[in-house]
Design brief:
single chain, mainly alpha, 2 helices, 2 strands
Length: 69
């Protein structure tokens, strides 16, 4: 597991990098879902987007770790 990243003398938690990657993936996926019209089937879009981000963050962390717990 990655501890901290040194960014010009400022130590940033490794999770922040994974969160940024998951956010970029969620932006892309939300754009694809909106273009396909999927959001017409979703009751509460912000809640769905949050759940999508959490699932993507979990996937990014597990794939960066390399093994399943």
């Amino acid at each position: 597991m990655m501890g901290e990243i040194d960014l010009y003398g400022v130590f940033v938690p490794g999770l922040a990098l994974w969160m940024a990657i998951a956010f970029a993936l969620s932006l892309l996926l939300r754009r694809l879902l909106a273009a396909s019209g999927f959001y017409r089937l979703v009751w509460h879009r912000p809640l769905f987007d949050l759940a999508l981000y959490v699932v993507l963050l979990g996937g990014v962390v597990i794939s960066a770790q390399g093994t399943l717990p």
